[in-house]
Design goal:
Blueprint: E1 10-19, E2 33-38, E3 42-47, E4 50-56, E5 64-69, E6 75-84, E7 102-110, E8 113-116, E9 123-126, H1 129-132, H2 150-153, E10 160-166, E11 175-178, E12 184-189, E13 192-198, E14 231-234, E15 244-250, E16 260-263
Antiparallel strand pairs: 1-6, 1-9, 2-5, 2-7, 3-4, 3-6, 7-8, 10-15, 11-14, 11-16, 12-13, 12-15
Length: 274
């Protein structure tokens, strides 16, 4: 948080490593494994410009380790790590001292064994290029060329920006975006931030509910096996009658063609007393 100055959820770490042509894995051996220790909250890994995987912390433990095989070639290889924060800590003992971000990087499976990349020369960049270009705003969205049609929405690529235009629905019912077809990211309407979305699925036990005894956060859970949040409120005051701009930044990959704007209907029940 001290590095990004709270200007972005995203912090890029980049470095390079030279691989000898004599490494056994280049001749059909087992691929090397990259381990990245993080204090939270999420991480995306790119090797030589190609997405290699993601890892996330949990509600119980923000810290985690990414472990995955990586495609390296002889010569210079480029490693890019995107550390993602999901808001600021706001509760807990001495939460102002809690750390976020990468704390160690290691490469296993080379001929000489484990290689500590933490001491390598790293560069960092705060935020996304799209954030710097204000792609979420009506003014900034025209500054780049966009791919149109089904190829754009169904590519399911990571770290991708999407845009669409829509007309405001009639009526005065509350509105929400249904983001179930997406993964994790942020969404804006007419330059206003709807917020972060994350289709993290609830786990645990959702059996019988009893509030007796000592309270625990896991008591009386509901929605196991479903997204913890699927619908995201959209104030009608943000909307124009026509040509409302929807911008989505997707970190993991999703089907943007299935994003929908839905109305909330309230059923009134009348009871007649005799």
């Amino acid at each position: 948080m001290n590095v990004t100055r709270d200007t972005s959820d995203y912090l890029w770490y980049t470095t390079s490593i030279d691989i000898s042509p004599s490494e056994p894995f280049l001749r059909g051996g087992k691929k090397p494994t990259l381990n990245v220790d993080s204090a939270g909250h999420a991480l995306h890994v790119f090797i030589n410009g190609q997405f290699s995987g993601s890892a996330f912390g949990t509600r119980k433990d923000r810290g985690f380790t990414f472990t995955g095989p990586v495609n390296l070639h002889a010569g210079t290889n480029h490693i890019a790590l995107v550390s993602v924060a999901v808001g600021l800590p706001n509760i807990g003992l001495h939460f102002e001292t809690w750390k976020t971000g990468i704390v160690g990087v290691y490469l296993n499976g080379l001929d000489k064994g484990k290689k500590d990349l933490s001491s390598h020369k790293w560069s960092y960049q705060v935020g996304l290029k799209g954030e710097a270009m204000y792609l979420a705003s009506p003014e900034g969205v025209s500054s780049v060329e966009w791919i149109q049609g089904s190829l754009a929405t169904k590519s399911r690529q990571s770290m991708t920006w999407y845009k669409a235009y829509f007309d405001a629905p009639t009526g005065n019912e509350p509105l929400a975006l249904d983001m179930r077809s997406m993964g994790k990211g942020q969404v804006w309407i007419n330059g206003q931030s709807v917020g972060r979305y994350w289709m993290a699925y609830g786990n645990g036990e959702c059996g019988k509910c009893s509030y007796s005894g000592t309270y625990q956060p896991t008591k009386c859970q509901s929605g196991c096996g479903h997204p913890t949040q699927r619908w995201y409120h959209v104030p009608r005051s943000w909307l124009k009658p026509k040509q409302n701009l929807l911008v989505v930044f997707e970190e993991l990959g999703g089907d943007a063609s299935k994003i929908s704007l839905v109305r909330r209907s309230v059923l009134n029940r009348h009871h007649h007393n005799k």
